[in-house]
Design goal:
Length: 366
């Protein structure tokens, strides 16, 4: 499964983030909040100079927003038929925000040739609590991939169907793949039954002698996230402690900890995250854009929507993953004038960016 398949609510905890050490653009000064002239456009398109007030007037219009939401919805629906498994998975994830549209297209995701897409589609059914898909989900209980099996258990449970949760317990304690253990813990955390907390604690102590140390570190953070969701707030401390990387190899754990704190709603970490966004990396270098943009999203989830300026730094990056992350930030921070950027990003040459922009539009307008 492609390791860029991730989510907020929907992330596959087993495959949280790719390493965030490639490339870093020097940040520009934070833009001033003023009614000045701004440039709107992607780096592949002609620039158009518009004032902030003009953009706010245009994109505050209900008809304009309805048209843009319709474009974004159709884009996501079409992306479920993409040749790229990553685009298909990200589209199903985004469509959790639009249960009616998801309901129409998710069956093809449940039988997708790619097991990552099948897993994400099943998790989308569970998160959106869509009924009417139980026949396919029960077939998925016998899938060749344990990721798909556990996602199907989650979906059936979340949609009120009778299902044996022992399958989750079995995979929680398997010894070969820390990613599968983390994925299963994530699903148990999402189910939210506090009686499962001792199981997660036991899993945290269960040895995995063949696993790489770096993967075990990520697993520990994902288990801590699950335990917080089940009521053990003492597990916030390991997440907070992972925020400041001591070496470049720690950046993936830092990114995961940032996401996790947003998932569990740790508002007390906002000051620390703000400090992190202004700090240097482990060798005195600038933090990678992915880290800064993850901070902006988490801060938005925690009630501080001022991170739009970070996306303004990077939305025209030559790296598609950075542009996609910037689009996600614009969706979370919710400034009406940033809908202009998101509309342009729907036409980005990268489908990954287009899907992220469509998801951001839906988040902002819906």
């Amino acid at each position: 499964m492609n390791q860029r398949i991730k989510s907020g609510l929907m992330k596959l905890a087993a495959l949280s983030l790719t390493a965030m050490v490639a490339g870093c653009s020097a940040p520009k000064p934070r833009p001033a909040e003023r009614d000045g002239v701004v440039q709107v456009g992607a780096n592949t398109q002609p620039k158009e100079r518009r004032s902030t007030m003009e953009l706010r007037r245009e994109y505050s219009n209900i008809v304009k927003q309805e048209h843009l939401l319709d474009r974004a919805t159709k884009f996501l629906e079409a992306a479920t038929l993409s040749e790229s498994p990553q685009s298909r998975a990200n589209a199903y994830e985004a469509l959790v925000q639009l249960p009616g549209t998801l309901d129409k297209v998710v069956d093809r995701g449940l039988i997708d040739e790619n097991y990552g897409v099948r897993s994400i589609a099943a998790m989308a059914v569970g998160s959106a609590k869509l009924t009417g898909h139980s026949d396919l989900l029960r077939v998925m209980l016998g899938d060749e991939s344990p990721f798909v099996q556990t996602a199907a258990v989650f979906a059936l449970h979340q949609t009120g169907q009778q299902v044996d949760l022992n399958l989750l317990v079995d995979h929680l304690f398997q010894e070969e793949d820390p990613g599968l253990r983390a994925h299963t813990a994530f699903l148990i955390g999402e189910i939210g039954d506090a009686s499962a907390l001792p199981l997660i604690r036991d899993a945290a102590r269960a040895p995995m002698p063949r696993a790489l140390e770096s993967r075990l570190k990520l697993l520990d953070l994902q288990l801590s996230e699950a335990m917080v969701k089940l009521g053990d707030e003492s597990q916030l401390q390991p997440l907070r402690a992972a925020l400041f990387p001591a070496m470049p190899a720690d950046l993936e754990a830092t990114g995961l900890a940032i996401q996790a704190l947003g998932e569990v709603g740790d508002r007390s970490s906002r000051g620390t995250l703000a400090k992190l966004s202004e700090s240097a990396g482990p060798n005195g270098e600038l933090l990678p854009p992915e880290i800064l943009l993850a901070i902006a999203i988490t801060m938005s989830k925690l009630g501080d929507k001022n991170g739009w300026y970070l996306a303004d730094m990077f939305w025209e990056s030559d790296r598609e993953v950075v542009r996609a992350d910037s689009a996600a930030v614009f969706g979370w921070t919710g400034r009406v004038e940033d809908l202009a950027k998101l509309e342009r990003m729907l036409s980005d040459p990268s489908e990954m960016v287009g899907v992220a922009a469509a998801s951001g539009i839906v988040r902002r307008i819906k």
